[in-house]
Design goal:
The protein is α+β, with helices and mostly antiparallel strands. It contains 7 helices and 17 strands. Helix 2 crosses helix 3. The radius of gyration is 20 Å and the shape is globular. It starts with a strand and ends in a 7-residue tail after the last strand. Bound molecules: 4'-deoxy-4'-aminopyridoxal-5'-phosphate.
Length: 307
């Protein structure tokens, strides 16, 4: 059995239990993160943990939840958890901050927030990644005028769950959601990029998206590209049918090419050259075979005797 961090200590996962009256369970008042660690030549490397934990703390503050930890403390705690679980391979890390109050009432109840961190063995997608089909969801993204649409707030994921469920029922692998205003927004748990000739585009934050860390990683990659131009701009649903390539991206999904959107084949229907290059580069940056900016890969190795 694996350990988890629960409240203020490490416990066996079977001991990390909550009362059924827990506020977060009734009203979705919790914030989570999805972080990956990849096997590298020496131990594993957590990808951009401080950026994930900064987002986590910022999103928690939106629900008036605060932790006595900095993003750096949370990264150190995560390293310790991986070491305790002797997990030096490919791993998914799930931090959660939740409202642990047991009082009934949909108002925010600051003061009762608790932290949990869980880890799961997780295999990276095969390379080259498989090609998916996608549909436009009938469910639009929550608007940022109704809620903080760009935050990883647990309750908001009912929107994603409805969208992917509907698409699966219609026989598609993935879903593409529009913003409340009708622009292309993103997948149910991943951002979207489209390639038109030598131009790469991704929707702006104003399209009710959750601006992911993978999206940011790839925007920087494409901005430094010698041949391609990278723009963050609004994409109309009809425009996407004419893309040469479309792919979704996120920590969990990594890079996922879309070969068919509704009844229309995108490009050749397979994985295009720019998506292939992006997926190869992304795999290299997360697994440590090419240099990365400071702080992007945080190594986890067995704790050794201090020298
Ligand atoms: N959008 C949504 C709705 C998500 O849940 C995620 C996954 N966190 C993303 C985009 C991608 O974000 P990231 O690249 O930070 O994983």
């Amino acid at each position: 059995m694996a350990d988890v961090f629960f409240g203020d200590r490490f416990v066996d996962e079977t001991q990390a239990l909550l009362p059924v009256t827990t506020h977060a369970l009734h009203y979705g008042i919790a914030v989570f993160e999805g972080i990956r660690a990849y096997r590298t030549a020496e131990g594993s490397a957590i990808f951009r943990p401080t950026d994930h934990y900064r987002r986590f703390l910022k999103n928690a503050a939106l629900l008036q939840m605060q932790l006595p930890h900095s993003a750096e403390d949370l990264t150190a705690l995560t390293i310790e958890l991986l070491q305790r679980n002797e997990n030096y391979g490919d791993t998914y890390i799930r931090p959660l901050i939740y409202s642990s109050s047991t009082k009934v009432g949909a108002h925010l109840q600051p003061g009762g927030e608790k932290l949990a961190i869980m880890t799961f063995a997780w295999t990276p997608t095969s390379f080259p990644p498989s090609v998916s089909t996608a549909t436009y969801s009938k469910w639009r993204r929550f608007s940022h005028v109704s809620c903080p649409a760009g935050a990883k707030i647990a309750g908001l994921y009912v929107n994603s769950a409805l969208a992917i469920d509907e698409s699966k029922r219609r026989g598609f692998d993935q879903t593409i959601m529009l913003s409340a205003g009708g622009e292309v927004a993103e997948g149910y748990g991943a951002n979207i990029f489209a390639v038109f000739g030598d131009k790469v585009m991704t929707p702006p934050e104003s399209a009710d998206i959750l601006a992911g860390i993978t999206r940011d990683t790839l925007i920087r990659h494409f901005q430094s590209h010698k041949v391609l131009s990278m723009t963050v701009e609004s994409i109309a649903p009809d425009q996407l049918f004419d893309a040469d390539e479309i792919f979704l991206c996120g920590t969990g999904l990594e890079i996922r090419p879309i070969g068919r959107l509704e009844d229309r084949v995108i490009g050749t229907g397979g994985i295009g050259p720019i998506t292939t290059e992006a997926a190869r580069w992304y795999r290299a940056i997360v697994t440590g075979t090419i240099p990365a900016p400071d702080g992007w890969r945080v190594r986890v190795v067995p704790p050794g005797p201090r020298k």
